[in-house]
Amino acid sequence: MNKAQVREALDIVAGMFPDAHCELVHSNPFELTIAVLLSAQCTDETVNKVTADLFRKYRTPEDYLAVSLEELENDIKRIGLYRNKAKHIRSLCRLLLDEYGGDIPEAHEELVKLPGVGRKTANVVVSTAFGVPAIAVDTHVERVSKRLGIAGWDDSVLEVEKKLMSKVPKDEWTATHHRLIFLGRYHCKAQQPKCEGCPLLSLCREGKKRMKTPKTRKTVKHIEA
Fold first, then answer.
1. Rounded Cα gap, residues 119 and 157, in angstroms
2. Nearest-angstrom CA–CA distance, 29 and 111
3. Catalytic pick from 75, 85, 120, 146?
4. pTM of the model
5. Helix (H, G, I), strand (E, B) or coil at 199
6. In which residues is [4Fe-4S] cluster bound (predicted)?
7. Where are the domains of the chain?
8. DSSP 3-state assignment of 183?
9. Of 17, 131, 196, 208, which residue is 20 to 30 A from 101 by alpha carbon distance?
10. Catalytic residue among 85, 138, 146, 167
């Protein structure tokens, strides 16, 4: 995609999802960090169901350390990889208390030092909780960026992030991150994307390819008795 096409695509997606936002329910940076950590390989919907009870029971880092690992595991058992995530949460809370006065650090380079917090999680936290422009590349952002041709098919997650950062104005990074997530989650799905009638079709290399491919018909064999 050239610069003009990217601009057109961004404007179209903005029109499709003007109210795109972080769908993880939270009330402070600490809860957001825990929620994003839990969301790895798990839907936001499931995370929100779990954290509805979790955030009533655990309000501070001390609360997570006051219970056994087994109890915490049981509280997040509906989440994929819950055992590892429980360990990360307890280690994260210990480090917050030891190094950061119990508060989530605002700096990206400090966030990625926290157990269970990778680059994507840190990007979500700095942008959503602290208002720092960032683009977090999750599975939805990666998929739609590659389908549209903003990034290459073989690009790594980091390469996709760098290309988006270079092609999207910095003051639009956070909004674009949320809009691309909504695009991938509700429209350009992994399976059965809504290519027909899509406002982005004229710009989308994957969409044009899919629309040109004839649908295969299932052959039904009649077996006579």
1. 10
2. 11
3. 120
4. 0.88
5. coil
6. 188, 195, 198, 204
7. 1-225
8. helix
9. 131
10. 138
Instruction: Quickly tell me which residue has 């429980």 as its tokens.
Output: 86
Could you count the other beta carbons within 10 Å of the beta carbon of residue 157? 17
93 in a known ligand binding site:
no
SS3 call for 220: coil
DSSP string, 96-152: HHHHSTTS--SSHHHHTTSTT--HHHHHHHHHHHH--------HHHHHHHHHHTSS-
Query: CA-to-CA distance for 193 and 187, rounded, in angstroms?
Result: 6
* Cβ contact 35:47 at 8 Å: yes
DSSP 8-state code for residue 58 = -
> Could you confirm whether 138 is annotated as catalytic?
yes
Q: How confident is the model at residue 71 (pLDDT cuts 50, 70, 90)?
A: very high
Q: Residues 8, 170: contact at Cβ < 8 Å?
A: no
Q: Which two tokens stand for residue 55?
A: 């955030």
Cβ-proximal residues to 191 (8 Å cutoff; 6+ apart), any chain = none
**Domain 1-225 belongs to what topology?**
Endonuclease III; domain 1 (1.10.340)
- b/e per residue 67-98 (b: at least 16 CB within 10 A): eeeeebbebbeebeebeebbebbbebbebbee
Tokens for 183?
A: 């695009």
Q: Confirm or deny that 188 is annotated as ligand binding.
A: yes
pLDDT in tens, 113-151: 999 999 999 999 999 999 999 999 999 999 999 999 999
Q: Which residue has the tokens 């009870």?
A: 53
**171 is a catalytic site residue:** no
